[in-house]
Amino acid sequence: MRAWSREPLLHFAVLAAAIFAVDAWTAPARVDEGHVIEVSAGDVERLAEVWRRQWQRPPTEDELRAVVEQRVREEMLYRQALAHGLEKDDSMIRQRLAQKMQFLSEDVAELAEPDEATLQRWFDGHAATYAEPPASTFSHVYFSRERRGASVEADARRALATLSRAPEAASELGDPFVLPFEFTRASATDVAAQFGTEFAVALADVPLDSWQGPIVSTYGVHLVLVTERTEPRRPSLAEVRTAVLRDYRQSKRDETNRALLDQLRASYQIVVDDAAIRSTAARDAVARADR
Predict the structure, then answer these.
(1) Buried b (16+ CB within 10 A) or exposed e, 31-68
(2) By three-state DSSP, how is residue 283 classified?
(3) What are the extents of the domains in the chain?
(4) pLDDT at 211
(5) pLDDT recorded at residue 21
(6) 118 pLDDT above the threshold of 60
(7) Which helix (H) or strand (E) holds 282?
(8) Could you report the per-residue pLDDT of 235-273, keeping only the tens digit for each?
(9) Between β-strands 36-39 and 269-272, what pairing exists: parallel, antiparallel or unpaired?
(10) What's the average model confidence in pLDDT over 71-92?
(11) CA gyration radius for the chain?
């Protein structure tokens, strides 16, 4: 053994092994050839052409970048799907495989059902999403601008004077209208959607329990009687638990998918011909300007 320990060849072999081990430990991770995703100038042009055919116009630079990003994302998911052997039970094209990889990721997210404390914390952090907006219960009398022309507001004021003496006459005044005479706890958003923003803003300031107006809407003018107004309210978790659980699960699926894509991106070298994006977008911008 002592003779072997003095052999220069043995010393060289041990030293070489040590150098190899240190190099393997300290060298940065290498991206192998199969982990390179390249989007060439030709690829950019093909993606731009698909966009033009689909939307009947050339893409902007931001739109083209988004399409390229989608192509990279699809390629990463596609390759990961192949690595998991998902192609063996499905003969669909690349997009289907990428979707299957995403669905697999979402299935993992579904495994962890939240306990009540976790769901409550998530609800507390998103309480504004579930808050009930202010709402009004009101009746209205409509006056058509098309039917009455320039006299519409004067007619409405005369009717208001009548209502101050005989509120029960409301149903006999005004013009026929497509919307109901009474609205119960209608949110400001719903009122704006049906009558217009100007009407909704004015309605919020109308005093309770007396006919007021005229108030302008997208249809004409109205007299209104607001009998109830509720303030914004935050419901309890128990009241909206179904919606909260649905949204919580979706948020976890989204988080899992983002984490998967970030992990995949770290293992690929992404090579995009950025100059091709700029030149293609610039050329298409000129084409748009010439139309």
Answers:
(1) eeeeeebebeeeebeebbeebeeeeeebbeeebbbebb
(2) helix
(3) 33-113+264-290, 135-230
(4) 95
(5) 43
(6) yes
(7) helix 274-290
(8) 899 999 999 999 998 888 888 888 888 888 888 898 999
(9) parallel
(10) 77
(11) 34
Closest CA to 138 of 195, 176, 178: 195
What three-state secondary structure class fits 191? helix
CB atoms within 10 A of CB 17: 10
Residues 230, 135: contact at Cβ < 8 Å?
Answer: yes
Count of alpha carbons within 13 Å of 191, Cβ hemisphere only? 29
Higher pLDDT, 101 or 37: 37
At residue 19, does pLDDT exceed 70? no
Q: Measured between alpha carbons, how far is 109 from 89 in angstroms, rounded to an integer? A: 23
Can you give the three-state secondary structure of 121-180, one letter per residue?
A: HHHHHCHHHHCECCEEEEEEEEEEHHHHHHHHHHHHHHHHHHHHHCHHHHHHCCCCCCCC
Residue 252, SS3?
Answer: helix
Distance of CA 145 to the CA centre of its chain: 39
Give the architecture (CATH level 2) of 135-230.
Answer: Roll (3.10)
Nearest to 31 by CA among 273, 228, 193, 268: 268
pLDDT the model gives residue 60: 93
Pairing outcome for strands 135-144 and 220-230: antiparallel
Q: What is the pLDDT of residue 9?
A: 44
27-62 pLDDT per residue, tens: 444 445 567 899 999 889 989 998 988 898 999 999
